[in-house]
Amino acid sequence: PLKPASTTDATGMTSSEPPSSTPSLGAAAVAAAAAAAVGFAAARLLPSRPSANSEGNGDHAAVANARFAIPAELRADGCRYRKELEVAVGLVLEAGENMKGHCDARGTVDGHGSEHDLGISTKSSAADFATAIDVLNEKVIGEGIRAAFPSHSIIGEEDVGTGEIPPLGDGPTWIIDPVDGTTNFASGFPITCVSIGFCDGGVPVVGVAYGPVTGELYLAIKGYGAYRNGKRIRSIDPTAAPKTLSNSVVCFEFGYARSHESLEKMVGAVKRILSLGCRGTRQTGCGVLDICYVATGRMDIVYTGTADEGWKPWDYCAAMVVAEEAGCTIRSLF
Q1: Residue among 231, 219, 172, 239 at smallest CA distance from 325
Q2: Which residue among 45, 95, 235, 311 is least packed, with the fewest CB closer than 10 Å?
Q3: What pLDDT, in 10s, does the model give residues 130-155?
Q4: Is 137 within a domain?
Q5: How many whole angstroms separate alpha carbon 1 and alpha carbon 14?
Q6: Which residues lie in Polar residues bias regions (predicted)?
Q7: CATH number of the domain where residue 91 is located
Q8: Nearest 10 degrees: CA dihedral of 313, 315, 319, 321?
Q9: 309 is in an annotated binding site
């Protein structure tokens, strides 16, 4: 449902098919998830959320930690969407704190952190699930956005569940992935993040993604550039020789589709790309960070597959702004 029409890839490959329909976990699941989260979140005081009722309240501006301070260019009075960015940054940092306890404890002898502590709820299959923190984060983020911008619409992964994704209209709309790379998070694998995208006129214009384990905060406003931990980023060194596929690192991501037809599509796409030759391949399990890694030149291409492979708007909305502002290309290849 996002513009441009192609679903989105990180920077060179996408599917032009619309995202497949996705069932709400409902209020009961939210309550259960919040209860399950208490085990390792109760001992930690979370940052306060905005109490003002007016839209555009900047109480969530993240300036306490200089590493995550919003660049001056994006805080200037003339910068459109700066208030939306401030709120999004504060909320991803808060949500990231909810994830740290599990990630830090996973695999330790004296700490909690097994998958049993996470209140896992299966959605469409064993490979498609949510943890208590997914649901808690979405609740925290949704409340923060509604407090700051009560008239805005919100599309969140856990609220949609396996139901139908609402169409994206022209009004201001937030798209939330409370935990991207949920399997990584549940396993304690460090490549996982929280992401918030903001759309206006049906176009993603603000993107924020935070990896609480790696300690990297990506943010961008359309027309104002992309940043990682306060430093401007770009995908390609303009002084370097142009890259070719033969010296590129290609990342593949496959969702939770397991049908024979879907597997044939996935394997077929990989074979077509590999047959052309590339330097190396990667699969991290976190689409948002994949796209951000292309935006910083850590990888060169991300193949996001087709819609039935699992990619949804929250898997790329925020990162799409970061990638485009860093100079990446998003297009359909097959």
Answers
A1: 219
A2: 45
A3: 788 988 999 999 999 999 999 999 99
A4: yes
A5: 14
A6: 1-13
A7: 3.30.540.10
A8: 0
A9: no
* DSSP state string for 222-258: TTTEEEETTEE--SS-TTSPPP-GGG-EEEE---S--
pLDDT of 22-71, one tens digit each? 333 333 333 333 333 333 333 322 334 443 334 555 554 444 467 899 99
Tell whether residue 315 is among the known ligand binding residues: yes
Q: Would you tell me how many other CB atoms lie within 10 Å of the CB of residue 5?
A: 11
Helix (H/G/I), strand (E/B), else coil: 179: strand
Tokens 């401030």 identify what position?
A: 86
pTM more than 0.85:
no
Q: Is residue 67 part of a domain?
A: yes
**Is there a binding annotation on residue 134?**
no
52: domain range?
26-232
Domain count, the chain: 1
Tell me if 215 is assigned to some domain. yes
Phi and psi torsions of 77, nearest 5°: -55, -35
